[in-house]
Amino acid sequence: MIRGALNRLRPHLGDPDRDGDLGTGTITKTRAKTQRPSMYRVLLLNDDFTPMEFVVHILERIFHKTPDEATQIMLHVHQKGIGVCGVFTHEVAETKVNQVVDFARRHQHPLQCTMEKE
Ligand code: TYC
Description:
single chain; 118 residues; alpha+beta; three-stranded antiparallel sheet; 4 helices; 3 strands; 18% strand; binds L-tyrosinamide
């Protein structure tokens, strides 16, 4: 019902002095619950053909690693077969995987990149 009509029919409702509510109730605040997004590891896979400098370049350009960090990650992947380039939300991880695979393909390197839920 519209406010004006309600006030005409029940003029005491909502009036702190006339509605019988002593006004001693607990004050409550509603707060929207924010959810943390699932995070995804972006993984680089080793192969025998992609040049080391190319992998370092990708880690610097796409994953914003320093030259030292990029070299460490590249060597880790080279030695262990797989390694983490970073952890991102699903959309960002997917975009980075596509950027790596596209860039490698355009340079005719077989470099593979994938993602997995953390
Ligand atoms: N194994 C490659 C070589 O010896 C280098 C390399 C490192 C390739 C990491 C891929 O994800 C990779 N040239």
